[in-house]
């Protein structure tokens, strides 16, 4: 007789609420008249994310760490921490998705993505003010996959979650309203390279299964402790799984998609990828490598140290010569992936006489980085010229004179990226570097400090362009007047960046409670 | 039964997939190469499943098939929309985004 599986419905409710919201969103597309779909979808999506957030926090406070759903989802404190971050970032991205005031009542997404760019059909769809409200269910599906990815406790769940969050993102990338050829190209590149990397991840999973005979992370950890399996299978598995996850993180040498896709995708989607994908990828990387492969850490720590140095090098040096603001922010996100990897390499567990474990410090870093990134991309959507976004940095020259508020907020976010004291980014870098230092990787911390100085240089380049340069005649950008959605993101991002910089204690303590994965 | 020949075949198929992805220029063929990689993985899963004497690997290969099918839907949609805009599915022609 087969016993029925037990499912912890209450504990898994954040996932189920998101999935339910997304499925209902598909029904809304089919049943609700076109005129009221936008409102219905925005309402449904924001309600789902807020409900999931509330349930996550309730579970975080009340529930004991446990492994749910027959061993495939680990619900421990790091999982709740990363879920909270992901849902916050999802809510911020949703606000940017829902913004319509900047484009004169039109969102940043194509009126009809199936039409050929420049065709009569496209003009017809534009004239009728059609819009894709499917973006909201796609966002929810993707967010659902990210939550599952961050908490996956077996490798098969990890793979399925990776695909669940990637497939909607591929589509979203190709749906920009303006410069649609670029957008479609971004979607193609992201899709092909993403499919390749998930192939690598899957082969790595097969190797680890061959090594240990199981998919659960603890089975792999036990097999490593026992040491009976074939070492070549284990090493092949470590490398291939590493490739798959590092690709999503945008680490060198698997970063080449990042600048192109970030530039071509609609800016709200870029913001979502830059914050949420990165958070989910780091969470899964930490869980797989700490829980399952922790026993083989001497094999992968040097590999990650090399990748971290290469990532910081490429991100901060090639970022110096960029002239497009979205491309520059893409290289900035690559550099930040390098800084995050510095924290991963340390492998400091909680309670070893250190202030913060690797997991806690990376959680804090992601919050500071995510808030500044959401804010920066919100400003990018606001700075416009002749109807579209003005992404060339030459258009940003003199912005401080024409619009001190937008330029001032952008400066704050850039300073946070650069890790200037009194911003959240500084405290984030400090705790991540401290945990790598505690883990015995002092040389890596020194390298990281040097590269954060190099990266600071290109952030300051934009600051100088905004405040100390004359506007270029005929290329000056204007700042649009956004609706409450974008303002909400800006207010939260600004307050968050300042508070995390001035009084980080409370959030650090909170992150400190989420220091240890359950096994 | 020895499992090495099956694993070797799986590795060869995977390598053909990777090499095909690197060398070919048509998006559809790149995509077929990725499918070959996924199927090579399925072979490895089933072989290891037999070797370890549990069914986890066989279950995994079903999951992989379903995911691959979902990926086809999304991938072909993107490739077709690009083909209609450019009248070409070559990845060399999709070159607007660069340094």
UniProtKB/TrEMBL annotation, chain A:
Q: Where is the NADH:quinone oxidoreductase/Mrp antiporter transmembrane domain?
A: 152-452
Family (UniProt):
Belongs to the complex I subunit 2 family.
Which protein is depicted? NADH-quinone oxidoreductase subunit N
Grouped into one coarse class, the protein's main location is: membrane
Q: Which residues form the signal peptide?
A: none
The regions listed as transmembrane in this protein's record are 12-32, 39-60, 80-98, 135-152, 158-176, 188-212, 232-257, 269-290, 302-321, 328-350, 362-383, 404-428, 440-464, 484-503
Write the Enzyme Commission number(s) for this entry: 7.1.1.-
Catalytic activity, as annotated: a quinone + NADH + 5 H(+)(in) = a quinol + NAD(+) + 4 H(+)(out)
Q: Which GO terms describe its cellular component?
A: endomembrane system; plasma membrane
PANTHER family assigned: NADH DEHYDROGENASE
The enzyme's main class, written as a single word, is translocase
Q: Name one Pfam family in it.
A: Proton_antipo_M
What interactions and quaternary structure are annotated?
NDH-1 is composed of 14 different subunits. Subunits NuoA, H, J, K, L, M, N constitute the membrane sector of the complex.
Tell me where it resides: Cell membrane; Endomembrane system; Membrane
* InterPro entries the UniProt entry points to: NADH-Q_OxRdtase_suN/2, ND/Mrp_TM
Annotated membrane topology is: Multi-pass membrane protein
Per the entry, what this protein does is: NDH-1 shuttles electrons from NADH, via FMN and iron-sulfur (Fe-S) centers, to quinones in the respiratory chain. The immediate electron acceptor for the enzyme in this species is believed to be a menaquinone. Couples the redox reaction to proton translocation (for every two electrons transferred, four hydrogen ions are translocated across the cytoplasmic membrane), and thus conserves the redox energy in a proton gradient.
What does the UniProt keyword field contain? Cell membrane, Membrane, NAD, Oxidoreductase, Quinone, Translocase, Transmembrane, Transmembrane helix, Transport
Any one GO MF term held by the record is: quinone binding
Biological processes, Gene Ontology terms? ATP synthesis coupled electron transport
Species whose genome carries this gene:
Tessaracoccus antarcticus
From TrEMBL, chain B:
Question: What Gene3D superfamilies does the record point to?
Answer: 1.10.287.3510
**Catalysed conversion reaction:** a quinone + NADH + 5 H(+)(in) = a quinol + NAD(+) + 4 H(+)(out)
Q: Which domain of life is it from?
A: Bacteria
Quaternary organization: NDH-1 is composed of 14 different subunits. Subunits NuoA, H, J, K, L, M, N constitute the membrane sector of the complex.
Regarding protein family, the annotation reads: Belongs to the complex I subunit 4L family.
What InterPro entries is this protein classified in?
A: NADH_UbQ_OxRdtase_chain4L/K, NUOK/Mnh_C1-like
Q: Which PANTHER family match?
A: NADH DEHYDROGENASE SUBUNIT 4L-RELATED (PTHR11434:SF21), NADH-UBIQUINONE OXIDOREDUCTASE SUBUNIT ND4L (PTHR11434)
Q: Please provide, in alphabetical order, the Gene Ontology terms of the cellular component aspect for this entry.
A: NADH dehydrogenase complex; plasma membrane
Query: Where does the sequence pass through the membrane?
Result: 6-23, 28-48, 60-83
The molecular function terms of the Gene Ontology recorded here are: NADH dehydrogenase (quinone) (non-electrogenic) activity; quinone binding
Q: Which UniProt keywords apply?
A: Cell membrane, Membrane, NAD, Oxidoreductase, Quinone, Translocase, Transmembrane, Transmembrane helix, Transport
Q: Please state the Enzyme Commission number of this protein.
A: 7.1.1.-
According to UniProt, the name of this protein is NADH-quinone oxidoreductase subunit K
Q: Which purpose does this protein serve, as stated in its record?
A: NDH-1 shuttles electrons from NADH, via FMN and iron-sulfur (Fe-S) centers, to quinones in the respiratory chain. The immediate electron acceptor for the enzyme in this species is believed to be a menaquinone. Couples the redox reaction to proton translocation (for every two electrons transferred, four hydrogen ions are translocated across the cytoplasmic membrane), and thus conserves the redox energy in a proton gradient.
What is the native source organism of this protein? Answer: Tessaracoccus antarcticus
**Record's bilayer topology term:** Multi-pass membrane protein
**Compartments reported by the entry:** Cell membrane; Membrane
Q: What class of enzyme is it?
A: translocase
Pfam families per UniProt: Oxidored_q2
Which biological process annotations from GO are given for this protein? ATP synthesis coupled electron transport
